[in-house]
């Protein structure tokens, strides 16, 4: 699980480093080769191609990777017909597709593209491709109302067997949240990813951006209407792997903040104000380690406040919310 933490912030931190390299005097001592951040950025985006699941496109640059997991979703057909869950990304060195951190990756990739599209230069196309690989999968996972397929692959079976995804014979069990077994953190994060991606694609592909934004709204509504943690709904299938230790309130707020930005409307303002209050209350119940100020797939707090700070009416949100 350690490697995925690297993956999820790879582009964002790379771009921050690029910005720093461009704006700050060089700290490299004489005779030393300066770090090549442009190369690091290219490799970082290439890494996403190595993590691809599903049917690989002709543009695949890491050609040692082949098609894999082409039947994902077929076991989901108990009450419903089988679902197409082919695609998306594997998690770090595992062959499980964990929807919660995957969605967070989508939100951060989108944010990187939104903030740094000019600095990305020729890598912008690769960043868009990496993001679309993820959002295409999220659209499949959220295709049915009030249901999200949040994980594919039995994590115990997977972790007991180290093999290439191309050859795997482990269980590809599909896990879902729905109106009786909610998952507000995974819904909030998925909504955030879809809404943020709609901004990232707005100018290059407006029809796709509309589709993403419309889905972001229904997914957020589902997470907000049926509140609960997917750790409770799915138990040992998701915890301790990607258990949301910081509570789902931050993801609902994060989702509303991204929807607010993506829709340019005041539609989500009340959700944000209410979300801040809920999140503050939740924080007082957390133990000290979970309250730590870090930004990652579990705790979105720092990102939320930076995002709200960049929005027009931020002072209102922050003032009203803390009262
Ligand atoms: C709702 O989700 C739970 C937990 O994943 C699952 O056991 C149940 O079958 C789902 N309900 C329906 C109607 O699909
Ligand atoms: C939101 O505003 C930005 C900047 O004015 C614009 O580019 C974008 O198209 C708008 N988005 C929507 C969904 O209206």
UniProtKB/TrEMBL annotation:
Q: Which reaction does this enzyme catalyse, per its entry? A: Endohydrolysis of (1->4)-beta-D-glucosidic linkages in cellulose, lichenin and cereal beta-D-glucans
Q: Which GO terms describe its molecular function?
A: cellulase activity
Give the enzyme's main class according to its UniProt record, as a single word: hydrolase
Q: Per the record's keyword annotation, is Translocase included, yes or no?
A: no
- Identify the stretch annotated as signal peptide in this record: 1-29
What InterPro entries does its record include? Answer: 6-hairpin_glycosidase_sf (IPR008928), 6hp_glycosidase-like_sf (IPR012341), Glyco_hydro_9 (IPR001701)
Q: What is its EC number?
A: 3.2.1.4
An annotated GO BP: cellulose catabolic process
Question: Per the database record, which ranges form the Glycoside hydrolase family domain?
Answer: 37-311
Q: Do you know which Pfam families this protein is assigned to? A: Glyco_hydro_9
Q: Which keywords label this protein?
A: Carbohydrate metabolism, Cellulose degradation, Glycosidase, Hydrolase, Polysaccharide degradation, Signal
* Taxonomy, superkingdom: Eukaryota
The record's family statement is: Belongs to the glycosyl hydrolase 9 (cellulase E) family.
What is this protein called in UniProt? cellulase
């Amino acid at each position: 699980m350690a490697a995925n933490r690297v993956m999820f912030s790879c582009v964002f931190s790379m771009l921050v480093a690029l910005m720093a390299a461009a704006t700050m005097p060089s700290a490299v001592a004489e005779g030393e080769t300066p770090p090549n951040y442009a190369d690091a950025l290219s490799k970082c985006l290439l890494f996403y191609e190595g993590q691809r699941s599903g049917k690989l496109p002709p543009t695949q640059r890491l050609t040692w990777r082949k098609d894999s997991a082409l039947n994902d979703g077929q076991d989901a057909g108990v009450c419903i017909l089988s679902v197409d869950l082919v695609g998306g990304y594997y998690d770090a060195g595992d062959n499980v597709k964990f929807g919660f951190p995957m969605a967070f990756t989508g939100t951060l990739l989108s944010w990187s593209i939104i903030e740094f599209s000019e600095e990305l230069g020729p890598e912008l196309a690769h960043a868009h491709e990496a993001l679309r690989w993820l959002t295409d999968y999220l659209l499949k996972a959220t295709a049915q109302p009030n249901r999200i397929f949040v994980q594919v692959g039995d994590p115990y079976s997977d972790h007991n067997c180290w093999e290439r995804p191309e050859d795997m014979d482990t269980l590809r069990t599909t896990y879902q949240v729905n109106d009786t077994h909610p998952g507000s953190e995974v819904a909030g994060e998925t909504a955030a990813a879809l809404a943020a991606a709609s901004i990232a694609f707005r100018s290059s592909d407006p029809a796709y951006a509309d589709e993403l934004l419309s889905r972001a709204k229904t997914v957020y509504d589902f997470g907000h209407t049926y509140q609960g943690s997917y750790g409770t709904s799915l138990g040992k299938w998701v915890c301790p792997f990607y258990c949301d230790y910081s509570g789902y309130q931050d993801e609902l707020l994060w989702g509303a903040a991204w929807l607010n930005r993506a829709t340019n409307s005041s539609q989500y303002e009340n959700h944000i104000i209410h979300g801040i209050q809920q999140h503050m209350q939740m924080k007082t119940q957390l133990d000290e380690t979970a309250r730590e100020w870090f930004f990652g797939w579990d705790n979105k707090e720092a990102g939320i406040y930076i995002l709200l700070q960049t929005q027009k009416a931020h002072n209102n949100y922050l003032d009203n919310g803390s009262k």
